[in-house]
């Protein structure tokens, strides 16, 4: 106790209203005159203990602290201990309150987390419902497509007139993002019930978007024999993600994969189209393909599309001219007023002159034409008199600045008509510039393309990134990304095991996926395999064109290769294609211009280096001074990173692990899907058209 009294003590105790008590400095010498007083507004403080011994005279020094005087009463040892105990009790009480507050905070945080978990669970359930029920209110593109087709049905059956249908379509275009929250289970409702709902919500706020109608010969997965099918589907989906309204009009082929069409229904009304001097009836079928509304036109008097093949018949001109004219008649009959009619290749290029010569003044004054071309080698040359089949005047069109062929001047060139009679032209090529196409790949159309070059742009192909994505690919034994490449090593081992190759992780694996192999490709492939074998690499090739001569040559060649490091599989398997892309270090490509399979760009996304079987200096040469030879960023990247790389160089570089991984990560981080540069080019073209 003696020691305690010799210490200088100053104790602060906080009261309920944040004011405080102070014990003055106490020493043994002046303890008899020490008086302690709490400064506070209330004499009673809830939960705090504070007592004061106050006898004798006291003086306030103006600070709220009462100072003792010489007349104070002597303080005993018990008084000091009492003050310590009071302070201690107050501290314990405050600590208790603090602990209670902490517990309350933890409880609130737990409740918050439970609420967040519940919301996430509900979102997952909502997504699962949308997947299981494609026509549900959560699947907006599908709902929009179905509504659009139902409006067509209402017009053709006479429930509404063309003007009201046009207003409804504008409403859908401008409100497409939100209609899924308004309309549900529309496939279960009659036209009358659905019409009442549409009219009720017709006065909602509107948003300006593009309304695009594709008139085309292909759309994947219903019918696709070339790059056009996947292009129409990929671009349409990318546009709808941006809020635009897209429709597709197709012939109803007998060979169509109609199992891929959701909600396929026949409209119980015919519409008529002009052909060969008469009006002919057509049946209309509607449905949804990949969330895009699709109309199928079926001629009733002609068997143009009830055949095994899509193309390759002597009357192809008659078949697709009929379809083109019927599509325009259908658009007019149903009251559509799209911003853009998007036509493709020569098969629907005749829509251009038909539109401007016959249809533009029939309620389609605000509609414009975009023509996309995937190849110039197929142009369709016909005698001018055949233009009369669809109602066109040969004397007006058989001119050098219109449809007359540049070389065979006694014929009309249907593909040329698509270029001349469109407002914008998009040429599809993943590696070539506009100048390169015009001057080297136009197949006689160079004068025409040069005249119209200001309205020409080039767009790269894309691919479906939801299917071809190494981080989510369901076919792979392990997923991986640019940030974490560990799964790629697992895929490589799985590929080696699948083909009974030695499981050396250090071995370089060269893959090759071919849709078909020409005689030239076969010789180049043999040379590449010899090279890879000499450098100790393993080789896997799948998906030949099943030609017996090619397969026999490959089997014979495999026997010539010493060792057990080469494998050929003569069938194309979807799951195996994914594994070859993921498990290979290098992918041999017959060409970097691969519009159908897009192997070079898929290889980059899977962390494999694309290498061309043959290096063409002419193909990769640049013309930087000529603005027409400026390429897309997609083309610039692949040509600069891989265009001049031989197989030997690639094998050597891959053994420099650090540099190679950086290069692969850089490529994997780029976006080559339909939603990227391909979409941007088309949006620019649509915007340019709409401003005309």
From TrEMBL:
Pathway: Glycan biosynthesis; starch biosynthesis. It is an enzyme of class 2 (transferase). Transmembrane segments: none annotated. It catalyses: [(1->4)-alpha-D-glucosyl](n) + ADP-alpha-D-glucose = [(1->4)-alpha-D-glucosyl](n+1) + ADP + H(+). Its EC number is 2.4.1.21. InterPro entries: Starch_synth_cat_dom. Residues 211-432 form the Starch synthase catalytic domain. It comes from the Eukaryota. GO terms for biological process: starch biosynthetic process. Pfam families: Glyco_transf_5 (PF08323). Keywords: Glycosyltransferase, Starch biosynthesis, Transferase. GO terms for molecular function: alpha-1,4-glucan glucosyltransferase (ADP-glucose donor) activity. PANTHER family: PTHR46083, UDP-GLYCOSYLTRANSFERASE SUPERFAMILY PROTEIN (PTHR46083:SF3). This is starch synthase. It comes from Stephania japonica.
């Amino acid at each position: 106790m003696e020691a305690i009294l010799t210490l200088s003590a100053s104790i602060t105790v906080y009261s309920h209203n944040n004011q405080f008590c102070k014990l003055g400095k106490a020493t043994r010498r002046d303890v008899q005159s020490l008086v302690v007083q709490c400064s506070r507004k209330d004499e009673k403080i809830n939960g705090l203990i504070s007592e004061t011994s106050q006898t004798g005279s006291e003086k306030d020094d103006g600070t709220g602290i009462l100072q003792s005087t010489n007349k104070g009463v002597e303080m005993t040892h018990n008084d000091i201990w009492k003050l310590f105990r009071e302070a201690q009790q107050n501290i314990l009480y405050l600590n208790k309150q603090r602990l209670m507050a902490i517990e309350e905070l933890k409880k609130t945080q737990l409740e918050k987390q439970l609420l967040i978990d519940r919301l996430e669970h509900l979102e997952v359930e909502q997504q699962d419902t949308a997947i299981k029920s494609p026509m549900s209110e959560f699947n907006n593109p599908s709902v929009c497509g179905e509504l659009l087709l139902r409006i067509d049905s209402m017009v053709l059956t006479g429930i509404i007139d063309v003007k009201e249908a046009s207003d409804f379509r504008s409403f859908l275009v401008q409100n497409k993002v939100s209609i899924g929250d308004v309309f549900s289970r529309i496939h279960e409702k009659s036209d009358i019930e659905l019409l009442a709902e549409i009219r009720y919500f017709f006065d909602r706020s509107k948003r300006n978007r593009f309304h695009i109608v594709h008139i085309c010969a292909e759309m994947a997965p219903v019918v696709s024999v070339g790059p056009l099918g996947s292009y129409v589907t990929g671009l349409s989906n990318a546009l709808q993600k941006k809020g635009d309204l897209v429709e597709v009009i197709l012939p109803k082929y007998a060979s169509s994969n109609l199992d891929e069409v959701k909600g396929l229904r026949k409209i119980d009304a015919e519409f008529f189209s002009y052909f060969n001097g008469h009006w002919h009836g057509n049946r209309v079928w509607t449905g949804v393909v990949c969330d895009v509304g699709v109309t199928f036109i079926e001629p009733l008097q002609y068997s143009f599309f009830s055949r095994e093949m899509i193309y390759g018949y002597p009357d192809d001109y008659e078949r697709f001219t009929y379809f083109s004219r019927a599509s325009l008649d259908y658009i007019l009959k149903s009251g559509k007023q799209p911003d853009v009619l998007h036509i493709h290749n020569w098969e629907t290029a005749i829509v251009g002159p038909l539109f401007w010569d016959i249809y533009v003044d029939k309620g389609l004054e605000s509609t414009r034409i975009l023509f996309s071309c995937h190849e110039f080698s197929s142009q369709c040359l016909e005698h001018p008199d055949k233009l009369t089949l669809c109602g066109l005047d040969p004397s007006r069109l058989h001119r050098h600045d219109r449809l007359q062929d540049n070389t065979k001047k006694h014929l009309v060139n249907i593909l040329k008509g698509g270029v001349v009679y469109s407002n914008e032209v998009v040429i599809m090529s993943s590696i070539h510039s506009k100048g390169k196409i015009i001057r080297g790949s136009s197949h006689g159309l160079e004068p025409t393309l040069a005249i119209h070059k200001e309205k020409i742009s080039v767009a790269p192909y894309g691919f479906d990134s939801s299917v071809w994505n190494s981080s989510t690919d369901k076919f792979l034994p392990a997923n991986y990304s640019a940030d974490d490449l560990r799964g790629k090593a697992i895929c490589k081992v799985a590929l080696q095991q699948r083909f009974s190759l030695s499981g050396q992780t250090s071995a370089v694996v060269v893959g090759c996926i071919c849709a078909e192999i020409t005689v030239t490709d076969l010789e180049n492939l043999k040379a590449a395999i010899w090279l890879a074998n000499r450098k100790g690499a393993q080789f896997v090739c799948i998906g030949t064109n099943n030609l017996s001569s090619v397969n026999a040559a490959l089997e014979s060649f495999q026997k010539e290769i010493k060792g057990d490091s080469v494998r050929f599989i003569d069938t194309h398997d979807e799951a195996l294609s994914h594994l070859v892309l993921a498990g290979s270090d290098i992918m041999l490509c017959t060409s970097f211009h691969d519009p159908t399979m897009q192997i070079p760009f898929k290889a980059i996304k899977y962390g494999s280096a694309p290498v061309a079987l043959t290096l063409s200096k002419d193909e990769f040469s640049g013309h930087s001074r000529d603005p027409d030879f400026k390429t897309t960023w997609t083309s610039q990247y692949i040509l600069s990173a891989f265009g001049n790389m031989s197989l030997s160089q690639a094998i050597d570089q891959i053994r420099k692990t650090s540099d190679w991984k950086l290069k692969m990560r850089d490529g994997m981080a780029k976006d080559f899907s339909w939603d990227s540069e391909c979409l941007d080019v088309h949006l620019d073209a649509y915007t340019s058209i709409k401003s005309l």
